[in-house]
Amino acid sequence: MGDDSKDVLRFATEYSEKNIDLYDLLGVDALTPKEDVHRAWRKRSLKYHPDKAGANFDPEKWELFEHARDVLSDPNARAAYDLAMKAKLLRKQEREAMDKERKKFADDLEAGETAARKQRQEMEQRGRDIMNKERERLAEVNRMRQEEDNRRAAAAQEMEDLAEAKRRLKEKKDEKARRKQAKEVLKGTAVGGRPSGPANGTVSVPGNYIVDAGDVKKKYWELVCDKLNAVQAARNLQRSSATAEELREAERSVQEIRKRIHEAELKFEREFSTA
């Protein structure tokens, strides 16, 4: 193999390693014969020729065109170049396929993680929804329970108010009965039979009317109370084993109070008739 062939073969290896597309540079393809390669070289490199480029002459560009012509015109160099380029293309395709596979794996992994994350979020949301519904249910149960407690408390209060009203009504009836009884006592009998002495109650005297009662002054209603107490005391003695003297003394006390009441009624009647 001559030195020129070795150089051309070296150029083929060098350009293939640099991934320089000599076919594209000359505007031909892998099926273009040697003669057409030369014609394409003359056509493409004309503007880079020293005589044409003049001051813009680029020796490296010109040299690249010449080496492309030589490599693609030499069968061995061209075969070595094609083989190296095909190997690089194959490795590139393999890398692209591997990159594509890795990308697909990464995409699948990311899609799986996204789906798992979405499923987890949906489960968490369902859990929160269930908890919120349970809280609402418990709140409703507590509300209904509170309403029932309030209703029972209101019913109990109503019963208590009713019982209190009945009790007060009974107290009023009892008070009315006591007053009626007091009037009957004033009109009733004295100790041992009908009352002796002056009749009381024939004149309507205000309860706050002031009456002389010995060394003190009393209101009319106080004298009436004294009379009631005296009558009750006399009756108590009559039911007990009191002596005759004690019974006579009790009777005198009743008569004395009845007398004071009678005098107060007469005095009030005189004052009222004078007025």
UniProtKB/TrEMBL annotation:
The keyword Coiled coil applies. It is found in: Cytoplasm; Nucleus. GO terms for cellular component: cytoplasm; spliceosomal complex. Residues 94-107, 115-152, 163-186 have a biased composition (Basic and acidic residues). Residues 230-267 form a coiled coil. This is J domain-containing protein. Residues 21-85 form the J domain.
